[in-house]
Amino acid sequence: MSNSYTHRLALVASDAHRSLLNQGRRGIERETLRIDRQGNLATGPHPRALGSALTHPQITTDYSESLLEFITPAEHDVATALDELDRIHRYANSKLEHELLWSQSMPCVLPDEADIPIAWYGTSHIGMIKHVYRRGLALRYGKAMQCIAGLHYNYSLSEDLWRVLKKDENSSADDKTYQSESYIALIRNFQRYSWLLMYLFGASPALSTHFLRGRQHELQTLSDDTLYLPYATSLRMSDLGYQNNAQAGLMQPYNDLESYMRSLSRAVRQPYPAYEAIGTRRDGEWIQLNTNLLQIENEYYATIRPKRVINSGERPVEALCARGVQYIEVRCMDIDPFEPLGISLQTSRFLDAFLLFCALDASPLTDAAANREKTENFARTVKEGRRPGLSLQRDGTPIALQTWGLELLEQIQAAAAVLDAQRGDDQHAVALAVQKEKLLHPELTPSARVLAELQDTNKSFEQFGLRQSIAHAEYFRARPLNEQENAYFNALALSSIAEQQAMESTQTGDFDSFVIAYNERTPRQLCD
Question: pTM (2 decimals)?
Fold first, then answer.
């Protein structure tokens, strides 16, 4: 345990500053496919009863019209955010009638590519930008990959706490710069240690044979409809899931916010021959926003992102440049198929302790060799993390995954103790104890439990997913919202529809000009 980590923990745990830990924010975004009662993708339009996917603040769609995304407000306590997520699930289930929410990260049975519906956001320029962007994703990566679901965990420390740490270090940076670079340091540590999250919480060791659609793979056959790897933790985060060869080498190792933004800005301006060959229009219609390596910044796949709430019409890089990093978004978490919400409070408490450790521990600058090492550790863990005796690399030296994991938990324990002292309970300590048992007993991990379920029943991923989806639907429908809660969500749905209609009726100009202007908003000279 580094001296700087011990010192910073003591500082934030002091009577003068402990209350500041309460002032950070937590938010959750959960993706889930709509399916029919037979476990097939529901290909109908986004249910109007849920409101407008374009303007609703809590219920929208991701890639596909069939891929719902539930978004909680940012709360000081993640338990409050989970309560919000629970209410969203209960409301959505009450409106889905004959449909269910898929319980897995890897997709259900998908129809032919042509029949997977791309999300539709209406005819406003903003809505069409979102739709055309998704058309581009279909052409570049295929629709099936875009139907994978994940869970995003948004995390911030209070700005006042960052000021305390800045003052303690006698930093000469302004508040915005110090906070931004501190979040980048958190990200460096996260990337060093995120393999641990994949081991502990990866829950996609198997998938439907229909998903690969003829792609070459090294998976083993479990049954006619199921492929798997015996020691895998998260095939979703492997090269079978969110991967893209075109993006290989896009993001060079970065040690500051400006380097990160420069790489992204370059990618959204850099022509890419394969995409140039496709073009931007077909039969008079836009089929992608541009022919660059990235259409927009969000096309870059990452396990974690520095984030800033954007203003209307603003691009993410513009917001980061103007106002700095506000929070980080953890993007590597699988949907937990044993949890109706896709994540438990206990997992969330562990994430808070893990991320506080990443924020306060020393974070050495990275280079190409360190970047390769963390990438290889992550890749090895998602494909064979439960393999007995598996070794990773730490600073060029082999170390057993279990040994390193236990060492990390011991370090994280100090952050958990501070969080528990601030709350007056032991929830973080209990969460860590549960994770320690997973390291000592791999059969307790979600990925092992999924395989055990498959082995003990009919070895069918599709039937397991449907069974869990039905159970989760019954769980939510057994607890209907009260009259006041239902009225709140009904009002949100109606107001979102009215907002979309107002946007469509008042917009000016043509879409072609709007796309050109949007593409030109990419910053070429960062943070002058």
Answer: 0.96
